[in-house]
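A sample copied in:

***
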Amino acid sequence: MIQLPKSTHVLRTFPYNKIEPQLNTAQKKIISEHVVSRGIRLLAIISSNNTNIPKFEDETVRFEEIHFYSIQLQNLKKSIDVYKVVAQIIPYPLVILFIDGEQMRWVMATHRKQKQTHLLSIDQTFEFDETISLDLSENNLKFTMMDNLNIKAVYHSWIEQLLQIELNFKYGIYRNIKLENNLLQQLKDLDRQIEQLVSQAKREKQMNKRISLQVEANKLKSVKQALIEKEQ
């Protein structure tokens, strides 16, 4: 559905037993407890060899290939934990579609090049809302519509497009998002702070403290609403 060239297709079960020796005890535990047996599939690899899209490297990052996976989980809430384990052993930017029954979630990340090894380490992960339908996300992730200037541009285009889809889906805002100016993250951070304050207020027994927490939550709700109205 995202129209990756056939030259990039792999479509095979990932040989976990071959890479298991590279994992420490904690990482093995995460995989064994949360990933369905034989549930890791390598779907596609995008590289300059099979797409003619050039690599990218500067002082901070290196993009040689992009690897696409689907991973079946016992619990979708563990997707970030599993993503980080896989990212430790695959030295390329990853696009992973996590599946738990009928629920699905895309996870990607920005990266930073390690000074000594020049391998990539995760800078920030992006876990996209599982309530967004697979059809909706895939219809907006057409490979032919991405910025194909280089491998890095392709990967970041996918992240930004998914951010834009979720921003529209959750907050009714349709606008282009850049990683450097992530309005969706600002709104999600406000939601998290509001939820924490409301939860604290419900547990608070002293009336004056409860009112203070509610006032603070209302201030953040006003900030959030102002951000939304500004963009609509």
